[in-house]
Amino acid sequence: MRHRSLLVLTTVITTGALTLSACGSRGEDGKSDNSGDKKTVVVIGVDAPLTGSLSALGQGIKNSVDLAAKTANKNNEVPGVEFKVEALDDQAVPASGQANATKLVGNKEVLGVVGPLNSGVAQSMQGVFNSANLAQVSPANTNPSLSQGDNWGKGEFKRPFKTYFRTAATDVVQGKFAAQYLFKDAGKKKVFVVDDKQTYGAGLAAIFSDEFKRLGGKVVGTDHVTVKETDFSATANRVKSSGADSVYFGGQYPEGGLLSDQIKKTGAKIPTFGGDGIYDPAFISASAEANEGDLATSIGYPVEKLPTAKNFIADYKAGGYKDDYAAYGGYSYDAAWSIIQAVKAVVSANGNKVPEDARAKVVEALGKVSFDGVTGKVAFDEYGDTTNKQLTVYQVKGGKWVDVKSDTFNE
Q1: What is the rounded CA–CA span in Å between residue 69 and residue 257?
Q2: 201: closest CA among 272, 120, 269?
Q3: Which CATH number do you get for residue 159?
Q4: For a surface tag, which of 153, 318, 394, 396 has the fewest beta carbons within 10 Å of its beta carbon?
Q5: Using CA atoms, how far apart are residues 65 and 58, in angstroms rounded to an integer?
Q6: Residues 31 and 160 in one domain
Q7: Residue 3: inside a domain, yes or no?
Q8: Burial per residue of 246-276, b for 16 or more beta-carbon CB atoms within 10 angstroms, e otherwise
Q9: Residue 288: what are its φ and ψ, rounded to 5°?
Q10: Burial of 149 (0-12, 13-18, 19+ CB in 10 A)
């Protein structure tokens, strides 16, 4: 996921992990000081929307990274190193994300960053991190160009930034998976496609449309909505008159829920389908009309049903976090743990000390990381993309999202 533009100011929030006390830090000469009981402080940065309409997702990301850091410290995962977390609020605004990236780069103790949530925000941050050899691992970005370059759609793959990684599957996977489910499993043949004109939404809608048509389905109409607007009646009426048997929406839950509501008010009792951008309880609550049957895809399998996630769920609950880990909690924990494992490899190879060129070495080590994480096997391909291509289709049943199909995507 995701891209969102909101005209708001950046708020800087420091996560609760900063209250963890470290036994030491780098010396005045910049070298690691691991003598005696002293430990070198290594900071994992977090960038996410911690306030605003997407804050539930952002808080879940922050808290899950916090849990990973605390777990690493408790288990002495990297001898001689104490992990802390610095979390910054981008409110889903690209300019704020870029400013946060600059701030994180300026903190020499930061050796890796988890985030952001939104693909559009990531676009503004990548160059800043790359120029400083600072690794970022997003748990939620899905736009293919972030890792494969702007011409990926033409079959020309070129990794723009060696410092960029992600634990989320891309929209190429998600959009095609959705099209295949709608056409083959749900039996829908005529779809009306709507997007919010943002990086995430428009890209996802385009990928879905191409695959749906390739399968033999028909796109009977297209339209666009504007983020933060609430009256989509004109679009809803176009959907009704088109004779579509389904709607695909590329965007996020604030607009998606209202769109579904207004389509159903026209009398068009057809499902609205979307990506992980609408997979949130707020999508359901935004609709005054019952939206039973609406659909969404999300990355991975349901965390609650993964045997590998049992400890994460229990530890998160025990941690007393106010907010839920939400859709990206498991992927955020795995993103943070991949950074921790990269730091572990770098420190181990340097006589159990953090080297002077730690950032560059962490980037290199991330490309070789492989472990069994909360969400399954965690590893990255030559583009920095996750090798985990598992996805799930959810459907609104009884006023809740219920998983109806989980599978590994194959071309």
Answers
A1: 35
A2: 120
A3: 3.40.50.2300
A4: 318
A5: 11
A6: yes
A7: no
A8: bbbbbbbbbbbbbbbbbbbeeebebbbbbbb
A9: -75, -30
A10: middle
Strands (E), 49-116: 81-89, 110-114
Contact 287, 257 (CB under 8 A): yes
Closest CA to 97 of 179, 224, 8, 25: 8
Residues 42-55 as b/e (b if ≥16 CB within 10 A, e otherwise) read bbbbbbbbbbbbbb
159 and 175 share a domain?
A: no
Strands of 254-356 (E only): list them. Answer: 272-274, 295-299
- Shared domain check, 154 and 244: no
Judge whether 201 lies within some domain: yes
**DSSP conformational letter for 151:** T
Residue tagged 């994992």 (tokens): 44
109 & 221 share domain: no
Tell me how crowded residue 370 is: count the other CB atoms within 10 A of its CB: 12
Q: What is the pLDDT of residue 299?
A: 86
The total number of structural domains in the chain stands at 2
Range of the domain at 75: 16-169+305-380
Whole-prediction pTM: 0.80
What per-residue confidence (pLDDT) applies to 37?
65
Residue 353 and residue 333 share a domain = yes
Same domain, 399 and 259: yes
